[in-house]
Amino acid sequence: MFSSRSKSTRTDSKTGIKVIFLDIDGVLNSTRTCIAFDGSPRDFSPKYRPKFDEVAVGMLRALCAALDILIVVSSSWRSQFPYTKIGASLDLPTIGQTPELDGCRGDEIAVWLAAHSEVKQYAILDDAEHMLPEQWPHFVHTDPNDGLSFKSFNQLCIIFGTTPFQVLQTSRSPKVVVEKITLEEEAVA
Questions:
Q1: Which residues, including other chains, have CB under 8 Å from residue 147's CB and lie 6 or more apart?
Q2: Does the pLDDT value for residue 23 go beyond 70?
Q3: Is there a contact between 96 and 83 (Cβ–Cβ < 8 Å)?
């Protein structure tokens, strides 16, 4: 079901878990990054890994860390790479992937959700609009030309009841916060 990394630290019987259904093309790479990096990623090798949008990956990573959100891969990349490799390569807390079915991506997400009653809150991050009507309030539609923009990230934060600035404050490591406070105190003294 879930990897041992996620199960013990992220499941709370009272609140359940939060997940993001993640597409990759048009979200973590885009027309913009394709032009900037002279091509799009084809895998996670050292040759192609730098072609992912590190700002987009970083915003997603920060949100996951701040709110204990887990990733479920819904991208077509899941047919080429195991979700564990995708998560490890992007340093995202990836716990699974949607099934590959005939039909729309929304159907695949619905099947995955039906099998995981522990999910209490979710969002869908995708550049395609193939979602079911009941999924639209959970859907953040990215522009494939820009991928995960700050505007899209803000919409994602709203779904989870937070703001980008709260994510920034929450996702900072204690060491960084302590160092910042120490520097501010030294400046005052």
A1: 26, 27, 28, 29, 30, 32, 33, 53, 56, 127
A2: yes
A3: yes
Question: Under a CB-based contact definition with an 8 Å cutoff, are residues 29 and 51 in contact?
Answer: yes
Write out pLDDT tens, residues 132-172: 999 999 999 999 999 999 999 999 999 999 999 899 888 65
Residue the block writes with tokens 């009841």: 161
